[in-house]
Amino acid sequence: MASPGMSIHDQAKEGTLTRSWLQDHLSKEPDDLDEYNFDGYTPLSLAVREGQVGAVKLLLLKKADANKTVRDGRTPLYIAMSAKQSTERIAQLLLAHGANVNFPIEEWGNETAIMAAITQSRDPEVVRLLVENGASLTRANDRGDTARSLADQSANPAIHKALLPKDKQEGWQTELESLLAGGIDDPQTKEEFKEDLFRFIEQQGLEDIFPSNSQYVNDVAENAIKARNSSPSLPVLGSSARIRARASLYKVIFYCDDSGSMDKDDRWGSLKSVVNAMTEVMTGLAPKYQRTVQLRFINKDETSSDLQPSEILGKLNFKPNGGTKIGTVLNDKVLKPFVKDVIDGGRVLDRPYLVIAITDGHPESEDTGKFRSVVSEYRDYITSNGYSKHGKNCQPRILQENSLFSKLYHSPLHQPQPDRE
């Protein structure tokens, strides 16, 4: 949490920048975005040096100069090679926002980022990333070294392979996996849950929403380990606990088909059971004050927000009737009020949304491609407003099978848990 009076440089360094604070500050002081502090660092270069991925992403989305050097001549990409953490992810973001991969650092012997990657970060994944983005292997520094000659001096065979073309890298990934820390398949402690959550956050490009000091993530990890420890006699699956913890990062909107056909073959009864059970599954590890969902229907007007799990069945106690304008209503009742109106109103999305659409058939009274076109339209809209992995690309996915729910629901973890704060 930022202290009152902290500068943009201080917040970039500490990782406390938020989208709303930065938006407000730059509306008043736009030149601060690339301004040097007393030590000759820009906000971006400080965030890079300290490994503050969320701050790096926020600054780049506001068009911070990805190539502006600090006073000693180093670029943000070069600085990233010795960042305190998250070098690969920070390099991905910088390259996605125009960082010059071959910029020679004159004051540092005309070294380039890939030379620093080989000698400083020593991370084969980072080297591979730079090679894939056009890093020169033959450009020489003032000592006559090239990236290739430096790699030849390395004792790490994975560094050598990282320079090879993709078609000659057979077996490289397996070797890297043995060299680098693997994932935690069955988290046993709060810290392991936090580590897994932040890995997932990085994979999904959500660092600007959940920075490294996020209290929300800390609370979810705390609840996850409490849930595990509260049922020691049950064969609790760590993978299911991990998935539930990840799900708790999202705000869930159940978008339900309440057309006339849903009244057949007990489809409506099945929908009620699924939504009721999934509410606990998807929110049970969230902080208590955030353990809510949104519920919207194709035909019935429902304006209640932030429903508690105990309220769900009451909201579903009616007879379905009407048509299936699933795409049109997705826009009107879900995406426009929850996403577009918020962003257009100058506000920010404090958590990502997970929209779960439940339907039994094809659309009526609208083009059959309407649902997909609405999703595509909002993909472009949120991308243009900076809500995506790199600020450039976003790919919503339409899932047709509920295998994830099946896996979760049939594990002991779907059972209601004791209250957790």
UniProtKB/TrEMBL annotation:
Pfam families: Ank (PF00023), Ank_2 (PF12796)
InterPro entries linked: Ankyrin_rpt, Ankyrin_rpt-contain_sf, vWFA_dom_sf
UniProt keyword annotation of Ribonucleoprotein present: no
Keywords annotated in UniProt: ANK repeat
Origin: domain of life: Eukaryota
Keyword Cell membrane: no
SMART domains: ANK (SM00248)
ANK repeat ranges, renumbered to this chain: 39-71, 72-106, 109-142
UniProt name for this protein: VWFA domain-containing protein
